[in-house]
Amino acid sequence: xxxxxxxxxxxxxxxxxxxxxxxxxxxFRSGGDVLFPEELELLGPLAGKRLAHLQCNAGxxxxxxxxxxxxxxxxxxxxxxxxxxxxxxxxxxxxATFVRSELVNWLTTTxxxxxxxxxxxxxxxxxxDLEAWANxxxxxxxxxxxxxxxxxxxxxxxxGADLRLSKxxxxxxxxxxxxxxxxxxxxxxxxxxxxxxxxxxxxxxxQSWQYGVGQIVSxxxxxxxxxxxxxxxxxxxxxxxxxGLIAADGRRWVWPEGTARIPLMFxxxxxxx
Length: 273
What we know:
Elements: H1 3-19, H2 24-29, H3 37-43, E1 50-54, H4 60-67, E2 71-76, H5 79-92, E3 97-100, H6 103-109, E4 114-120, H7 130-140, E5 141-152, E6 176-179, H8 183-187, E7 205-208, H9 213-222, E8 225-233, E9 235-237, E10 246-248, E11 252-254, E12 265-272
Helix pairs in contact: 6-7, 7-9
């Protein structure tokens, strides 16, 4: 199992995800937006800020940030994602820079420095080295620069369709090996699916890891970043992370009424001194 396999799995999944989303360039040209309030609140003012979007996927969020005035650079492992992002930027006339690279390699080699680094929704779990990730983020930030991370709470991967703790061990240390799934079609319009084309099984497995909130926060602290904000949310933005969740306003997924809720997302801000 190699990073190449994971990249190929994401290439397949990215083609499939975007096949469900219709004419995205027209969507953006007409003022369409895919960002959520939680991300924008934690990021704060964006005009004129140099922003690195880490694991940017196909660039839709990156373009939303650029439209708000950020000088945005998106970085992702997937060739398919970066090619799509470049074409979408050109076709929507929202300028942004996109780089195809394994993330930690880019973090440790780029000469660029940023006011903000941003990552969201299914990100750090694809990386084998949490310490290298955190140190790389600290490296690319300017003094007083901030890292903003909005992520599905790692508890969600332990919750089965019956809403019981019947899936993955929260404290698992061995890597998980399975193909990247078609979570866009599973989530419907909450993730922009407007063309319900057939979803084919992904033939290539990818490798991922489970990191608890404590591990993530500790890695950032050990890299010298100062935690300023840590929030938990009882809903999931966009992606239906558990089959038993219920659709709600704002493209969110919530617990069924009467369920004792646990967090489905967390958000943090860490600052470089």
